[in-house]
Amino acid sequence: MHRKTQTRLPDTTGLAIRDITITPIAIVDPPLLNAGGLHAPYALRTIVELVTEDNITGISEIPGNDGINAALESARDLVAGRDVFQLNGIRRILEDHFGKESASQRGDAPWDQRKLIHIFSAIEVACMDIIGKATGRPVVDLLGGMMRERVPFAAYLFYKYEGAGGKLGFDTDPQVRGWAAARQAAALDPDGIVDQARSMCETFGFQSIKLKGGVFEPGVEVDSIVALRKAFGPGVPLRLDPNALWKAETAIEHGGKLESLLEYLEDPVRGQENMAKVREALSVPLATNMCTTSFEEIPQSIALGSEDIILSDHHFWGGLRASMELSRICETFGRDLSMHSNSHLGISLAAMVHLGAALPQLSYALDTHYPWQSDEVITRGRFSFDDGAVEVLREPGLGVELDRDALARLHRNYLESGLTRRDDETEMQKVVPGWKFEPVRW
Ligand code: GKR
Ligand code: MG
User: Fold this and answer.
1) Ligand 1 centre and the CA of 19: distance in Å?
2) What is the pLDDT of residues 252-275, one digit of tens each?
3) Do both 294 and 183 map to the same domain?
4) Would residue 340 show up in a list of annotated catalytic residues for this protein?
């Protein structure tokens, strides 16, 4: 019989959490196409600030929506007064309050729709930021220490409409140049994708390229990969991510054409069984951020052999330490680990870089949407990429501080935008009336 054990947390110290501030923000996002529809002119994020009795502040950033924000509000009293070192106990208390979250609550969309994992991530990262500041060590050291000083990222290409997002429209500015102009330009065919890739790689120095698929009929997306291979030659690793929109037969047919062109094929099909079937038929490695998305799904993933690479995301796996645990599991079972992304700002990027620097193995450049964003919420301004990589910050904690003016402005954006959750289907219907999301389309 399973008996619930009482969670006893030690008495509070100066590192007990005194204040919690939860600030929803809306950041400018271009009209990017994906399996779920179209990105709205703003992406929603939530910034969490914890302040201890000793006045040390820790911050974190997670994907935002009204449900997550309400749940965070209801977690406030449970977390207040807890010592930031007691992360295991805090996790237990939150689990007891919210109840276990099942993998099916992730939903069918390309992005994760669970709540509890986001809340863990928000609290854990902010606590790690505080622990780092209290001990004078960067977060990477709290994760076991630095394995690399620079963390490589991949160019993340999207089919898109013209426009750069913001002001709830598709405004374009003819004065804009360089990557900012490329970020506004339409990319609806292989030539547009190659132009976008050139501009992104020139500006940021990326050395691997990912194309977000699941937008057009598979043949069109295969043509884009062929065009990228032709434009960039054999030395640049390429990936395609149809976000599980293909049937197994489609994935086997089109994946077959891509076998010699791709570094990996990401989530061609839906569910672990279908992934295992496709993996059996193709020699190209398969990666996922959709079919194996939580610890409870690992046993079946191993039994079926559903993927080669798990794309972790500390926002979706319940924090940075959970991602380190996942890396050990991956190593044990012969999986590789890399990283997934959604539209985000620099607090998330800083956390991803600390994690990327601490992972024992890193065989693939990580995903990031960061070049698509233009806003920032931290005092150091936007991160720069050097040869596609970001150097890990050495300051205590995450190494980034909130820019209060920017936070206030982005919060106003949130209030004025009227958006409360990511809804790419509704956004797509504004352009293609009657458009419907389908979990499997081709
Ligand atoms: O931002 O449209 C997007 C992506 O499709 C995102 O939502 C996915 O979660 O990037 C992600 C992925 O790799 O599946
Ligand atoms: Mg993906």
Assistant:
1) 33
2) 999 999 999 999 999 999 999 999
3) yes
4) yes
